[in-house]
Design brief:
Largest sheet: 8 strands, mixed
Shape: globular
Mean pLDDT: 93
Structural class: alpha+beta
Low-confidence stretches: 1-7
Strand content: 25-35%
Strand order of the largest sheet: 33-34-36-35-37-38-39-40
Helix content: 10-25%
Amino acid sequence: MDQSIKNETLTVKSYPETRKDASVIDDYAGTKVADPYRWLEDDNAEETKSWVGAQNEVTQDYLSQISFRQNIRDRYEELFNYPKLSSPFKAGDYYFFYKNDGLQNQSVIYRQLGFDGAPEVFIDPNALNAEGTTSIGLTGFSESDKYVAYSRSDAGSDWQNIMVKNVATGVELGDTLRWVKFSGASWVGDEGFFYSRYPAPKEGAELSGNNQFHSVYYHALGTDQDQDKLIWEDRKSPGMYHFGGVTEDKRYFVMYAAPGTDGYATYLLDLEKPIGTTKPKLLFEGYKNKSTIVDHVDGQLLVQTDLDAPNYRLVSVDPNTPDPKNWTDVIAEREHLLEGVSTAGGGLTATYLEKAANQVYRFDYDGTNERKVSLPGIGSVGGFGGKKEDTETFYTFTSFVYPPTIFKYDWASGKSEIFYETELKFDPTEYVEKQVTYKSKDGTPVSMFIVHKKGLAMDSLRPTYLYAYGGFNVSLSPGFSTSRLLLLENDGVFAMANLRGGGEYGEEWHQGGMLKNKQNVFDDFISAAEYLIDEGYTSSDKLAIAGGSNGGLLVGACMTQRPDLFAVAFPAVGVMDMLRYHKFTVGKGWIPEYGSADDTEMFPVLKAYSPLHNLKEGTIYPSTMVTTADHDDRVVPAHSFKYAARLQEAHAGENPVLIRVETDAGHGAGKPTSKIIDEQADLWSFFFWEVGVRELM
């Protein structure tokens, strides 16, 4: 990638003129707030489309002047071009797995008969769409594994269609269920399955309209969707989410009712009674806690709960006497977070997060006979699923310097063996990954992972990329990234902070960064940046911050609060308008996490950090590339449109503040490989240039 740059400055075309409508003013209990870019919320308007096109032209013109941009793209394509496999899972006589040969836009679903059978294509999404923007996922097998329901999503939208195939023959059954979001397909026998969907949206508002009345239905195989049985809806609370699944023994359908992304109520539907003749009955009240039914074993429900246990515990509950006073601990709460429990292989597998890295333990069903699963190192695991009678399972292990590796695990012996190793030209021994602890503004200790080449001089000259999320109880643990190699092999430093609001240290850690405590998250992130500078890893003119979705909000808030601290900012698909976020698609579901501007107590809190509302005229902001996509129907692109328009208006520096809008893509899931490579090449080119790198290794 040797490439020298002769020119030291790049030219930014004049930003497109963005019309302001001074008449748009909202009244929040007496406080007037102007919203002059409200018209950008209409993503179907020709004026908005023209604005997007003009902004993309400016962005691409600037990036085209970075002469190592093509070199970065070529290098990333080289790094990305290796086979990628998912952990296999068994259904009947077949094993299924997802595989991407290297540069295929979408992973192909394969099956093989028995463990030694020849793999064959089951579904190839790439054959469904020439642009590679259709993604497919298997969502549920029938009880005898005769049929499988699968979902189809187009252009990155959260909207899905559910369809059904015969597993043995691959023949489509003709069932098509539309307007599905946030749902699996949970079968009862081979006759049908439960799923969740919304009513059909208004034409033209599919990607931005307010989604309401998420309801549970039962679909009988071979019937039209309009004949599906309505299992549950809540006409009094249109913003509620309803979803669930069937226990492995098919005795109960478990339903969860959630006002948003935090706590929920838990219901049971007895499947010994004809489906549709009774309604699910309340088991655990909402909505302060999270109690998830792991399975039904010997007449008892195994429940993972945070009730009286912010780090979670596993309890045994009699469904006939579910009052918490009758609960019995199976796995008591511990010092570390209990992330999840499965009942595969005739026992309990408990995955813990210990200092933001995974450890796995096996127990008998009663919580006795504890033994630790030996993992390759400090990192993240996924897998350990299956049915009670299975004799083996698979799991994937990865870390910052350990490419994803699939292991086969024998339940009886407790031994692991490598099933598949990533074929990537990368030597992990050349790099070091470590975890440090720093203090936030209020003195709270916060952990952070740091990765770089071994022996790299900490002389404050290292280009550094600081990433975080900090919300919704989401835990960030070590994981491998091929795009990050572009940074590491060019003597850069990668840092990932485990901020409050996340789930790494239990529910108290989560609550420390939500609602009125949200400023703690920004303080934690700013303190992480200050730590990296104070410890000599980097300096303000070589430091970039990045995050997506809630992490995009994080970046937007921090660059408005401390614009002097960062050289580059990458707010991706971010929640930038905290006063109106709940008025679009599924945004109202985030009210338990953020609060609502319609609440007089929360309005001043939200306005105080809302990225859109805290940009100040005459301020020099970091070089910024806002990224979003035209089919993002989770965090609608209007957030990024309005933020970019206001940022360009307020920014007083000569450094660029740009927006890159991807077409035929959404919030992230299902994005084709070609678009991923293009986007990452643009981001890293922008990063290196804006932190002063003029020659790449």
